[in-house]
Amino acid sequence: MSPTSQAYPSAWKRPPQIFTDPLWRRVIFSGMVLYLLLAIGSVEVNWARVWEGLERGQQFVMGFLTPDFTSRWRDISIGLVESLTMTLTATVVGIIISVPIGIGAAKNMAPTWVYLICRAIISVSRSLQEIIIAIFFVKMFGFGPFAGFLTLSFATIGFLSKLLAEDIEDIDKSQVEAIRATGASWLQILVYGVSPQVMPRLVGLSLYRLDINFRESSVIGIVGAGGIGATLNTAIDRYEYDSAGAILLIIIAIVLVVEYSSSLIRRRLQ
Amino acid sequence: MIDGLEEPVKLPQIWSYRTPKARFLIWLAWLALVALFVFSWQLMNTNTLWMFVWDAPTHAADIASRMFPPRWEYIHSIWLPLWDTLNIATLGTLGGIAMAVPVAFLAARNTTPSVLFVRPVALSIIVASRSINSLIWALLLVAIIGPGIFAGIIAIALRSIGFIGKLLYEAIEEIDKNQVEAVMATGASPAQVMHYGIVSQVMPAFLGISVFRWDINIRESTILGLVGAGGIGLQLDASMNVLAWPQVTLILVVILATVLVSEWVSAKVRAALI
Fold first, then answer.
1. pLDDT, tens digit, for every residue of A148-161?
2. What residue of A is the nearest CA neighbor of B231?
3. Could you give all domains of chain A from N- to C-terminal order, each with its CATH number?
4. ipTM of this complex > 0.95?
5. What is the DSSP string of B41-94?
């Protein structure tokens, strides 16, 4: 880039990797700075309140370091059982519903009208956040883990069907062709041509979703859909930071165990 | 021996993919899964009031009839919360990046000062941040530093550390060692090796990860208001508490539009980077 005919420069500066055009560079950076100034200017911080809160923050950190598992153990265990059962049932039901939808949303397996319907279901399920769905399900079905179960199942459908459909669309066509050449019906093509190709990944995705569902189950309790989130919310509202710390540690531990074991199983499958 | 020859080995007439033992084990695993499911279902629904479940369709129809049509005039009181939501996501992402980058360099095996002492600390920071949802962070921070946008920004930043930190440290571990060695061979100082050898290699991955997290943060910051951490969720909560369903519909439409736009922007930017 630099002209070689002139004196060789003694220092070299790394050229920019993005926005290589100098004019655009200036425009974009000044736009960013302007936005930042506006944004930071519009954030109102009550520093006195923050300063007061620091002490409480210190209490929370202390609570985190000296967690109290015993005094609220009954509530914690109820919440935990709700979360775990909700996670498992929702994942299983979600998989059972999302497999047909996933097959329907694969362009190479379904006629166009089925494809469009299934894609519509997927995009509705994906575009709404779990919390908002949970609020509505709680209003419809009453408080408790049943609403949470429905929320997680609904969210699982969007996630799993989309990835399954993409997987089915990416399969090796020649295997399907070979099965079809034997005179197999649509169902036989699905069982012998498609499912062996996508099965390992489907199992992997299901385990991954199990992991996500547990994480989400700890949150949707905040809006009344049962699970450990409800217990955590109560603990924080009552400023019982040692119990809250215990709950957070349990969540972190379970997430770690689920994540580690699911990655182990997935690695063995592939 | 001769007996064996006379009696030919009986081979199965029908070919099957798995041995009987493997099939039995798989069948057993399925049985265990079904049993676990039924058990969980029973345990979960011990306190479910089925009466509420059965009349849910009536409730749903009732809510739906109240939600339409959306109250479009209300949009003028949403602009400010929407701006706040955008700020929570953007400033939160920037804060998260500022904290995640050092953590990632401490966690990556090839840049950490000590694999034995510093790396586990950095990894546990990443794990703790990742396993706790931003809504829970917001819940904690609202209790600690009071309700408002500031709590939302910090919550988003704390949640982003884990995500950005994890993906970035994996990217750092995967860099091409030869380039680093070449820079070292010129007699560069450690800071120069970092700048010219490592940073330039992870830069595209880093920008992609950041934009991706920004997109997720927009999504999450729309609901942080439910626990009092500012933004459009605050309006959603307020509207729902006073049963103003037409306003709720409008807010949901705005949230949906925001999420779609941010997803589009992030997809475009990431496509341009790669």
1. 899 999 999 989 99
2. A43
3. 60-269 (1.10.3720.10)
4. no
5. HHHHGGG--HHHHHTHHHHHHHHHHHH-S--GGGGGGTHHHHHHHHHHHHHHHH
